[in-house]
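Hi there,

I know you've been waiting on this one. I reran it after we fixed the sequence typo, so this is the corrected version. Both the input and the resulting structure follow.
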Amino acid sequence: MESLLIGGIAGIVSRTLTAPVELLKMQQQNRFIPNTTLREVVRIEGITGLWKGNFTNCVRIFPQMSINYGLYSFIQRLVNEYGDNGDNSHNGENKIKVNKNIINFMSGGISGAVAMSIIYPMETIRSRLSLQTGREQYKGIIDVIQKTPMRQLYNGLGMSLIGFAPYNALNFMFYNYYNDGLKEFIFTGDSGDNKKNKVAMNLLAGGLSGISAVSITYPSDLIRRRLQLQGFDKSVPVYNGIIDCCNKIIRSEGIAGLYRGLCACYIKIFPANAIQFMVISLLSDL
């Protein structure tokens, strides 16, 4: 329960603080939709328009990060109990030797896939609410559910599992890898600054892990978003699955089209991931 709450709270804090940059990333991924620039959003909807869809995102991210971090922590506890991951505090001749990076990768992949599968319709709902102008298409979460066929709510789930599971796996693996490496440079013994140092270490490790993971898996996020928006607006191209979507993007926009919005993603992912892991660390220490 503690891990579930920690993961959920960390997700809400990080996504709320970085919502405008997340909106920018989604806009750049789908520039064919009308009024998809931050300037247009502010002009038509005011400054609060930069946070449109954030409530839905928080409704989505709390259970997703709860399940994600809770299951990840559970798998880690199992490994600590039954396996030897190189931590000398766990003794026992019969423990199975496991590589720490591999365990972090596998734990993150499993937890990410399970969490995404459970909450996926909220991903689609959030995308539609964020990319509409004002409330011209949907009034809120319930309205999207009523107006959208159930099958469309799950559009892009396959791509999400293909993309988010390895992203989450790499994210947790890189975070722990960077965290261990930074300890040697940031911590200086038992000084009174160690609490500040730990915050800085978690922020930096979290930000770098997000950048590293998304650099490898980004095209899957763009394809997933395009599939989520099927039927949203007549300006959205029609795709017949993952392969068709990928082929049409490459034909019309080139290979670079698969990385549309990556710069905005970098701007968003570093602070979002940094804040997320920092909050997890701070809450875990309470």
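Quick highlight: The chain has a mean pLDDT of 88.

Best,
R. S.
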